[in-house]
Amino acid sequence: MADDVRVRQVTWRHKVVRVALLLATILLGVGSWFHSQRQDYYDDLARSCRRLKDRQCCFASVRAMRDGGYQLVGVDDDWRRACPPGTSPHTLLCASSYQWCAPPP
What we know:
With 105 residues, this protein is mainly alpha-helical. It is built from two helices and four strands, in the order ααββββ.
């Protein structure tokens, strides 16, 4: 009887460990997928800079966005530029800079 209880405890612990490992694997996979999607976002922005005359300004704005994890300024229903609450539009002081939403300095 004592051996039967011990076997059940070991089996239960193995199941918990397996579930924990499965969840950790899923979370790591989802996290790396989101990271790659985010990286693709900035790579796509940088690719579009290549067709501009003032590429360096555009590339610098993409680097600033990537470093902060910021997104482009959105457009609201009335086609006005809009940022989420607590953020405001930011840009570099050059013609080909993107505009992005970031917390105030």
